[in-house]
Amino acid sequence: MDEIILTQPDDWHVHLRDGERLATTVPYSARSFGRAIVMPNLHPPVTTTRQALAYRDRILRHVPPGNAFEPLMTLYLTEMTTGREIEHAAAAAIAGVKLYPARATTHSEAGVSDLRRCDEALACMQEQHLPLLIHGEAITPGIDIFDRETVFLERELGPLLQRYPRLKIVLEHITTAAAVEFVRQAPPRLAATITAHHLLLNRNDLLLGGLRPHYYCLPVLKRESDREALLEAASSGSPKFFLGTDSAPHAQSAKENACGCAGIFTAPAALELYAEAFEQSGRLSHLEGFASHFGADFYGLPRNSTTVRLRRESWSLPAAYPYGPDVVVPLRATSTLRWRLLC
Ligand code: DOR
Ligand code: ZN
Asked: What are the tens digits of pLDDT across the range 206-227?
């Protein structure tokens, strides 16, 4: 198979940042994806519908002419989020509300320390059919960074599913075999996104033979056996697993730093990277469900009606892209990619 035609895919988890950086991020996401769920972890965070709609306008100004890219906006859940705010969000077609456990990751300081303080918002989300999107890592001090996802499943997600029996939840960017199993066993209202980098890389890639800051993200890369379980799940044809790049650019100077930021910029070749992973699994024919169908179905949105073409072709990305006053290094900069999206 040297060419694949897919229903236009969507990205169900992306960081587009703000200001002049949108000039870099938006065109790359719009190149591959019809829609994208845009993360609200700006500084300060997007906590109100008003802020989300203003952010959406700023994003739309950077969509290339003739491109129909649609940003789907999210709110950042805090312990102060009211039921009224959730009602506004639902009325304004906000697509979801993001839970960042406080201090778990980039710009999560305003996040949630104790989920029980969010009962009003969560109950209202359940009524309004507004999905909760979760960064699933436990934040209790002392938990090993490699165990944070698994501990979150037991201590937080299990009880949450019971407390809100009709709440739709997306467990974002899962990284472990344990999370795959948890999602499989849960009712259909729980789904998960999987990134291209977690399908292609493991923690040896991050740490062996020198520390690779451009492979550092959160949740951190795990064992090879976890990567294999993720690839199996993504390519299994189960509608519970769908595409979310978590493309998360940081300036090169913030990555190549004594205290480097977490985040991997995959947007410039996102679909190509997924195709490479699916080919590895021998299930390229399952890429379309994962990339183009299951996310839309879960969110209750129509599947896209246009198509895209991927061709087997060697090409490479540049070493870096301009990024506001800085530059940003994409995943797989200058190395050969095996698939190319025809634009
Ligand atoms: O690696 C990550 N980067 N993980 C996250 O959860 C946040 C993201 C970011 O915003 O940089
Ligand atoms: Zn993210």
From this structure: 999 999 999 999 999 999 999 9
